[in-house]
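Hi V.,

You were right to ask for the full record rather than a summary. Here it is.
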Amino acid sequence: MDQNMARDLISRYVWIVDTLNRYGRLTREDIDRLWMRSHLSDGNPIPPRTFYHYRRAIEENFHIDILCNRNGEYYIDPGEDDSNRVLTNWLLDSYAVNSAMKESHAASGRVLVEDVPSAREFLPTVLEAIGSSEKIVFTYAGFNRSRAECDILFHPYFVKRYKQRWYMVGLREKTADIRTYALDRVKEMRLMSKNFTMPEDLDPSQFFDNIIGITLSKAPARIVKIRATPQQAKYFRALPLHHSQQEEIHDSYSIFTYRLKLNYELVHELLGYGAGVTVLAPKELQVMVTDELRQSMRQYEELLAETI
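Predicted structure:
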């Protein structure tokens, strides 16, 4: 099967999931009526046997069960777990934008999205390796190395997207430790046709549970407290910094509490809010943030001194 045909099939699968997700329980007649209005359709209904194969493929590839009740109505299994629901929502969001742009030429130039180059070339290969528990070998040009590192043998356990970059997390066979690699720094990659065994005690959903970003740490999680202005607090309520977020509302500020490991990404995330937030605890995080601020101030002071 060529890439265009595979891409078309995936679009059809996601259309079915998206339609059932939006409309709820639908009969085959309802589905066909909506299908014939879709840009994916040639104006004909989905043949019964084809629809059956689509359902099985959706279950196999996306782990989404489409059930049918006694009234002949199809619906998505409400027992779907949280991790599958996150993936489903991401697929549906991506499909919704893509579908709207194809069906409305007037809107296509008015939808602006950030590019994710790492998803184009190597993400499908990594996902295939994860699905088949197959080892991969790749060349990696990390930012902190002057030369690319070749022939890295790797067991990909799962992937994570963070700030418009895709990362794969797994075991580097040579060093027998867990590593994280950014897909946009990969230069070559191929499947090895050799299988690996996923550790039974590794839960991807819990792996970055107390971490902002993708920098791994063996240090224990800390209680982090930040004070936010009323305006910044509104943004945290709408889009929490972390799932452990708790808020204490005061007259002129709010205090947000988290359980997090201290790392580079947390510091720079907090710095990005400027004067809207102040770190109250722990002391170590205060020092990390103020060190970055002092270094930035020093650079600007030197720059201003040169222009006087």
